[in-house]
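Record 1 of the preview.
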Amino acid sequence: MIPTFTIDLDGVELNYAEASGPGPALVILHGITGSHAAFLPLLPALAKCAHVYLPDLRGHNLSGHTPGAYQVQDYGADMVAFLQRVVGRPAILAGHSMGGMISVWLAAHAPQWVRGVFLEDPPFYITRPPRLQETWFCGLFMALSEQLRQHHLQGGTLEDLIVPVGQWRANDQQTMLEAAGPESVRLKATELHRMDPSVLDVVLAGDFLGSTESDALLARIQAPLHLIAGQIELGGAMSAHDVERFAAAAPRSTHDVIAGIGHMIHDERPNEFLSSLKQFIT
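->
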């Protein structure tokens, strides 16, 4: 059992798991609607080369809810405090999706605390209209927002979410239950049951980045930066043009596009994810 801890960061209760290991500090930030638990299967391998921290972002899982404060700078401020008060030294950041956006914000605004940034399919260029409305993410988040509000208004339980989550389409042929199995379905239902539904409001409004632009953040980063992206045709968050734009905005960065995979690289291709991240760490 991996131990978890809670710390009060200026009024925001943050839950996190920690695994001691040799090498640098590694902080992994999950995506929207997720939790630290998504990366627990990878923890034993990563703890062989790093001291690993897995926080639950505000509004997610066992961390505190902060309605109306879910922009990138809100998450970023939590993580600056987390690095200062828990990690205590500069860290490598690994961020999936929204976690990648937060990692970039951190590297741009608190560079003294960031040794490197490893990005897993971040939605750099689809967070604002009109591109946001053209993505499958938008439709999912709209439906999910309404479903979760009704769920909480009706006093729904975790068990009430398991069946509908299992019936989500994982691909053209399978439901999530068929593709991922009952344990993964229960984990996602648990994450959704615990999540503050208003987390999705700022995303659906296209205001997650506020007045900030992704390219401006990327241009400020001096630390090593590596991107792994999926294929947008399979549900990834970055098109080929987006990857080229990323490379132009961060000319000292490196990147790989992983064929045959969508947005959840760490989940569907854990060995490739681990190999790439461990290479970046070392």
